[in-house]
Amino acid sequence: MTATNSHKKAKALKVGSRRPAKELCSECGLCDTYYIHYVKQACAFINQQIAELETSTHGRSRDLDNQDDLYFGVHQEMMSAKKKQPIEGAQWTGIVSTIACEMLTQGLVEGVVCVQNSEEDRFQPKPIIATTTEDILGAKVNKPTLSPNLSVLEQIETSGMKRLLVIGVGCQIQALREVEDKLGLEKLYVLGTPCVDNVTRSGLQKFLDTTSKSPDTIVAYEFMQDFRVHFRHEDGTVEKVPFFGLKTNKLKDVFAPSCMTCFDYVNSLADLVVGYMGAPFGWQWIVVRNDTGKQMLDLVQDQLNTQPVDSSGDRSNAVQNSIPAYDKGVTLPMWAAKLMGVVIEKVGPKGLEYARFSIDSHFTRNYLYVKRNYPEKLANHVPEYAEKIVSQYTLPD
Question: Any bridge partners for residue 80, and if so which?
Answer without folding.
Answer: 285, 307
